[in-house]
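Okay, can you check this protein?
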Amino acid sequence: MTHLLCLGDSITDCGRLFDDPPLGNGYVNLLSRKLKEQNMHWNITNCGVNGFTTARLLANAEPFYLPQKADLVTILIGINDIGLMMNTNRTSDQKKQMMNHTLAQYRQLLQCLSRLKCPVILMEPFIFPCPREYQNWIPLVETLSQGILHLSEEFHFPYLLLHHYLNKEAERLGTETLTPDGIHLNPYGHELLADKLFWQLMDL
């Protein structure tokens, strides 16, 4: 049986630690349902943790995630790193240093997960420009995305682009249709993410 390990922050967690079943109430749970509909009964482990940054995910990789012996791994991380850059009164130079450090930690994470010898799908961090203050986050999100893209090419891992895809849908349907707060996803947003991830998995 294929074992899929899903790593990330609160968007992946989606209540799985406290309020909901082990897969949470978001895209991981919806992905499991989509696979079962295709008679693909995978063993899925949701390891998303609310509040995780790239550094905290890296710190947990060795003791907790490598022993999982996964066949596939997904990673959705980075928006909390952007939050730290934007919400701590950092100068432009300090933000640049933090971005470089985040990408260095992301590289270390991929080096660590490469020991599993399985495909790792990197998922692009995203933000919605509502409330308006999040418009100021977009340049950093795009910079982080470009850095992750380069890492995906370096490690030969697929990269699932999400920021422009989700924002285009938000423009078409209304931001409130996809997100309650500009960062997290509501049920329809999770459905879009689960569907896009499903087809990425089918392409492997």
In short: The mean pLDDT is 96. The CA atoms of residues 137 and 177 lie 21 Å apart.
